[in-house]
Amino acid sequence: MSWTELKAGDNWTDANKPDDDRTIICKFADGSISIPQFPRIPMMYNWNTVVAWAYSDENITHSHYKKDVSKLEMIDVYRVLDLWQVNDHAIGHAIKKLLNAGQRGSKDMQQDIQEAIDSLTRWQEMQKEDEA
Known about the structure:
The chain is 31% helix and 11% strand. By secondary structure, the protein is an alpha+beta fold. The protein is flat and about 50 Å long.
């Protein structure tokens, strides 16, 4: 895979987007690499920080479920939330409950899952409050 560097003044949104089955990979200023899911780009990425892009040499299936963690020694729940850019506290709480459901000793799986459901229900309520 060869990277196409973006120079000062280049705008990622002006770059050619794939019109075939190839997967495009973006390299960001902080060194992270991500695989954007076209056409759902704008809300997921800060495109001002893209410094290079490349087409993958292979077709990456379900790439939105995969993150490169080779530079990390270990991953905890908080790193997972960070990698998937989960910024909402209610959603993050539900994910933490589901990832560890019934494994923490003090609560059984049923209770942890119910607490995750409660968090997501509260998230839905907050969305309705914000719309009003």
